[in-house]
Amino acid sequence: MEWQELTKEVEKLRIAVDPEKTPFQSKYAAIRLLEEHLKQIENKDDPEAKYERGMTYQQIGLLHIDTEDNSSGEFNLAKAVDLLSPQDPRATLPLLIAYNQLGVLWNNRGTPEKGQEYLEKATALYDDWKEHHESDALQDQETKEIESQHTHTLFYLAQLYRITDQPQLSADFCVQTLERQYTSGEYDRKEWVQNSSDLGLYFIGQEMWKTAAASLTASQLIWDQWAAEVGTNQEVVKSSEANLAIAWGKFYLQALESAVEITKGIESDLPSVFEDPDMFRSIIGSAPVPNIDPDEIQSFDAAKEIFQAGHKWMLKAMEYYQLDGSVTEHFNILQDIGSLYLNLTYFDPDSSTKCKLHKRRAALVEGLVKDLNPHFFKGILQQITFQLGEIYSQILELKLDQLEKSGKPPQTRASKLNKVTNRSIFYFDRFLRLFDVDGKPPKEIESDNVQAYVLAHFCTARLYSKLIAQTQQNAIENLEKSLREYKWLVEYGSKSGPALNTMKDELEICSQMAELLPVKI
Fold first, then answer.
1. Is 452 exposed, middle or buried (0-12, 13-18, 19+ CB in 10 A)?
2. Is the pLDDT of residue 136 over 80?
3. Based on CB atoms within 10 Å of each CB, which residue in 80, 252, 308, 382 is the most buried?
4. pTM of the prediction?
């Protein structure tokens, strides 16, 4: 059988739909045809026969990968790249395909350095082809396929650099991939929007605000086009919109957090990176791009503007990720909204306003304590109850500070102060009870939770001593409860070892209080 006739027959078998019980029978038949052809030409040494053998091995290798036999696929593709000459224009596309497949295979095997070798060969081959290939607006099919394979190469390199912990390189190749996909018009819009918004999240983490804004704006514009064409009722469109809204919300949240750090005089340890002003320019065009600079967020009004922008996006995401059916996502969004409120407190010097903002933080998650089943959502409830204990403790400190500045004794506000104090104690206790085993405190605590568990006891001990007693007997009872907590902390701290190395100061206070309180009682 002649090569042209053979390739047509192989292609028919490759795309054939086989019965479910024998899903690869047509592909196996194609492999047999190719292997039979290989036998007929294996002893020929002329350049044309060598090219044909290389193409045959390449086809066999790809078919083995299609049948999930990666080992045989790698063997045959390696044979192909040895036989096919990069100088032969006919071999450009087959070699690009083989290099890409080998790069992916070795990357998936956990040997990225080997995968990188093949992907870099693909890049070098494409660059050489591009240098000698005349640009033509009306591209032929082979040119389109070569360009498509190069886009795949860039995508695989982005994955490889992510796996090998080279995030900036990964991001650079991801940008190139997305721009090429957009230019070609051959891309899945859901994946494109998600990949671009994920890229934006990476740039946010690197404090590259202009680049992050460009990534998210490009995502938004592609989503807008998509939604205009297919409508917003499809589930896939709705979920994409919600995920993009989360990314936008995090953009403003992280900018506000960076502004807080700047206000506190905390210097960023991230290296300065060049931000390409033309990234995604072909997509964005003249569309507005948010221009955020945390250095310029220095007042409450400026911070409030950022807060409102982030809050709007978070609420948009929560329309899709509702508590009923999306507990984890709903909770995570509430956490981000709470963080927006928390960061806003740093820009208002007024204690009364700070208290109101903390109360809103509490109101966001307080209802979940009743709504969520501890059996299924214990981890989330642990986060919520500990956080609520901290929030009410923060409100208490603010109220005490207000009283001190006013010159009034705490007794004048005893009822309100005790209400806040007891609320904090209540939630720290709920947090601790979530660790109980058969209704009793655990004998051992997982290392990830040790510090939080101990800190909850420490905060509870301090809170009991802050309760304003109406009688001497109440005062003694409160101090005894405080002492009980400190004694537990001293005993636990003596047995915990390195797990509490970062809490040496707190444990020292516990030891001192365990000695002083009996005298005070």
1. middle
2. no
3. 80
4. 0.88
